[in-house]
Design brief:
The complex is a heterodimer of chains A (about 350) and B (about 260). Chain A has about 350 residues and is mainly alpha-helical. Helices cover about 70% and strands about 0% of the residues of chain A. Chain A contains 15 helices and four strands. The longest helix of chain A is centred in the last third of the chain and has 28 residues. With about 260 residues, chain B is an alpha/beta fold. Chain B has two domains: about 170 residues, 3-Layer(aba) Sandwich (Rossmann fold); about 70 residues, no CATH class. The longest helix of chain B has 19 residues. Classes of the chains: A mainly alpha (about 350), B alpha/beta (about 260). The interface between A and B is medium-sized, with 30 and 38 residues.
């Protein structure tokens, strides 16, 4: 009843190709962003910010990166964790060796380093596609993590083999390391996600995004139109890895504080992020964020739900049940809506437009 | 109308093209030329090498013998995407649209080569990038208007019926503003109304934009009506070459199409 576009006339192409052409959508998104900045950090406690919201924001950024590559450009990658690790280790080396470097600049340069590595591992994509490419990107995953473990230079020959985020300030507020407050770290990760999402949306609705989708949907026709496959694919790898690299740097510096290469393990990071974009919706920026929310929030919901309704189970039983239910939900969900949460959201909006008189 | 159209110089010269795949000779020693502003049809039975010919012209296949001269420049080994740069666009026999994208985005993709703004502006989607996007959108809207597909602008092309998909594909090829347009069976599988529409579009493209067109078609009444000259291929060899009337009267063509009576 309140959600319809009647009376909203688009008088220019600019208005017609807006991200949210309907004013109700614009208000909703504005409210979400303002709420995220003004309400959430004060409403949520330390535990929620640290254990739930910050990892969600950072993984959502990585999911956007992977979605650009897999959802838009059609190149399946299992190397997300490796590209994140490149970002994290690059950032560690930079901040420890150049203490005066602004940490946000360090995050961005880490992304550039990850992009360079992404280009190298994207080279096979010209010749191999689909599952075979996924296997080829596994090489990145294993090789890079092995390298970071093996060569002491990457972790400054630290005897424990871990990298630890040194405390760094932005505008006089500590945002990394153990002294940083959860709120400060929350604002940093939220800002990176908001800016990253907007930039990604701009890329995919312009020339570059169209060339990615053209390669994804019909590579021969794309080539005959004049799109160069190698450049286009490598650009997708580079930009995707940039996002992953920045997310990886944030992962250590803003969330974990210190970690070993295992934090970027295939099963810990690469697969969950792939699930996020599959569940959220391939080829959708909004879907990446929704998928990240689903994957990070659902286990927590499953942990907390039985006690809430008065069922108390043994911890180990509870943990196993959680995993079973979580797996079952993913399967059920993919059968019901293979195009993911983003499509579900779209369908809901379509229904809402006609509600309450659906004819 | 044909009297008022000024057929110009030779735009594309195909000289002695041969190509074989393993033991199959797809084309052997085929020569013809295409003049500016004309409509040339390539006809022939199935497997005659028509599509191979188009693939050679737009650089997808590399002929083993013979030369192709486009706009006066002999062509060397080139990569597929270079043909688009030189001003050749095409449609496919089996529709090759970008199925996940809307009609509008498909046609916009056809203008990709003409869009120059760099990554930085693309990321901001502001200033020069936005201006460029809007300019090209205006051109694309003209094409949409021309092809009468306004209503399906925002529909993902995978959901469109076959006839409309063919039309969108023509739109995507037109968006590149090509000098030479290659159409591979633009009317295959269409009913009579759709064929009439498509004929009208092809003639209008030729007339209004002055685009040179090479098309492959099986419907003889269409071919004889709209084309200026016809090349007939059979088993990779050129059987006949000339105006529709000449080709129609050619005994070899009649034999190939109708079969020869065995006494």
């Amino acid at each position: 009843m309140f959600y319809r576009e009647a009376g909203q006339f688009k008088t220019s192409y600019n208005k017609d190709q807006a991200v949210f052409p309907i004013i109700q959508d614009r208000w909703f998104i504005a409210a979400v962003i303002i709420g995220a900045y003004a309400v959430v950090p004060f409403a949520a406690d330390e535990y929620w910010l640290q254990a739930v919201i910050i990892p969600f924001l950072i993984l959502a950024l990585a999911a956007i990166g992977l979605n650009l590559l897999t959802g838009y450009a059609g190149q399946v990658s299992l190397g997300t964790g490796a590209f994140m690790a490149v970002g994290a280790y690059a950032c560690y080396k930079m901040t420890t060796n150049i203490p005066d470097l602004n940490v946000v600049v360090a995050f961005l340069i880490s992304g550039v380093m990850a992009a360079a590595v992404g280009i190298v591992f994207g080279l096979p994509s010209l010749r191999i596609k689909g599952f075979y490419l996924a296997v080829a990107t596994l090489a990145a995953q294993f090789f890079i993590l092995w390298l970071f473990n093996k060569v002491g230079w990457f972790y400054n020959d630290n005897p424990s083999g871990t990298i630890t985020a040194p405390p760094r300030e932005l505008f006089g507020i500590t945002i990394t390391g153990p002294q940083a407050t959860a709120e400060a770290r929350y604002f940093v990760s939220l800002t990176f996600l908001v800016v990253g999402a907007i930039v990604a949306k701009n890329l995919v609705r312009g020339r570059i995004g169209r060339s990615w989708m053209a390669i994804r949907d019909m590579d021969i026709a794309a080539e005959i139109i004049g799109i160069r496959p190698l450049q286009t694919k490598l650009m997708a790898f580079a930009i995707s890895s940039f996002y992953c690299g920045v997310a990886g740097a944030l992962y250590i510096f803003v969330w974990l504080g210190s970690a070993e290469t295992e934090a970027f393990d295939l099963l810990q990071v690469s697969f969950p992020i792939l699930f996020m974009i599959i569940i959220g919706g391939l080829g959708s920026i909004m879907g990446s964020i929704m998928g990240a929310a689903f994957i990070t929030l659902m286990p927590i919901f499953l942990t907390n739900f039985p006690p809430m309704i008065g069922i108390h189970l043994a911890t180990d039983l509870q943990k196993h049940l959680e995993e079973i239910i979580f797996g079952g939900m993913i399967v059920a969900f993919l059968i019901v809506e293979p195009h993911g949460l983003a499509r579900l959201w779209q369908i809901a909006k379509e229904k809402l437009r006609l509600w309450p008189f659906p004819y | 109308m044909p009297a008022t159209r000024n057929i110009g110089d030779v735009l594309l010269d195909v000289d002695g093209i041969s190509i074989s795949f393993g033991g199959v000779k797809a084309l052997s020693d085929v020569s013809f030329d295409v003049r500016e502003h004309e409509i040339l049809a390539i006809i022939g039975p199935n497997g005659a090498g028509k599509s191979s010919m188009l693939n050679c012209i737009n650089g997808f296949y590399h002929p083993q013998e013979g030369t192709i001269t486009f706009k006066g420049k002999p062509r060397h080994q080139m990569q597929t995407h270079e043909a688009a740069l030189q001003g050749i666009a095409r449609t496919f026999q089996n529709i090759a649209l970008f199925k996940g994208m809307s009609t509008l985005d498909n046609i916009m993709t056809g203008r990709n080569l003409k869009m120059k703004k760099n990554l930085f502006w693309q990321m901001l989607y502001f200033g020069p990038a936005l201006k460029e996007e809007l300019e090209h959108r205006a051109v694309v809207e003209e094409i949409i208007d021309f092809l009468e597909i306004e209503a399906i602008r925002k529909t993902p092309v995978g959901k469109l019926p076959y006839g409309l998909q063919k039309r969108v594909e023509l739109g995507r090829a037109l968006a590149a503003e090509p000098d030479l347009l290659l159409l591979d069976e633009p009317m295959a599988g269409m009913n009579i109304e759709e064929k009439q529409d498509m004929c009208r579009f092809i003639l209008d493209v030729n007339d209004e934009f002055g685009t040179t067109i090479v098309l492959i078609e099986h419907d003889m009444s269409v071919v004889m009506d709209i084309s200026d000259r016809v090349v007939v291929l059979d088993y990779g060899k050129k059987l006949a070459y000339g105006t529709p009337d000449e080709v129609r009267a050619n005994q070899d063509v009649i034999d190939a199409y109708l079969g020869v009576a065995h006494e």
